[in-house]
Amino acid sequence: MEIKVRNVCPVAVNKLDRLAKEKGSSRQAFLKEQLETLSIVEEEAKREQAIDDLYDRTMEAMEECSDAMTNLNRMFHKITGEDEE
Predict the structure, then answer these.
(1) Residues 12-33 as b or e (16 or more Cβ within 10 Å = b)
(2) Which of 25, 37, 65, 67 is deepest in the core (most CB within 10 A)?
């Protein structure tokens, strides 16, 4: 698919040309890559947030499990009369 952009500031075009040259590509190839990257940025940010949320929930669940195991261990030692180590 073709996209045309008009009335771009010459300073910006020069900067884009420099960036493309630094990457060893043409302006067209550079802009194509940038546009394709831009098109997925929001989706990637959502995925990263979902991973962060999952990590937080997992850590909370692990802390709750640890607390429950500690309480069960204390109860076991009370019931059996053994000293806690």
Answers:
(1) eeeeeeeebeeeeeeeeebbee
(2) 25
Q: Residue 21: which H helix or E strand, with range?
A: helix 10-22
Domain containing 23: what range? 10-80
- Reported residue count of the chain is 85
Please report which confidence band the pLDDT of residue 81 belongs to, taking 50, 70 and 90 as the band edges: confident
Residue 85: what pLDDT? 62
Q: Is residue 73 part of a domain?
A: yes
Number of domain units in the chain: 1
pLDDT digits (tens, 9 = 90+) for 16-69: 999 999 999 999 999 999 999 999 998 999 999 999 999 999 999 999 999 999
Instruction: In whole angstroms, give the CA distance from residue 85 to residue 83.
Output: 6
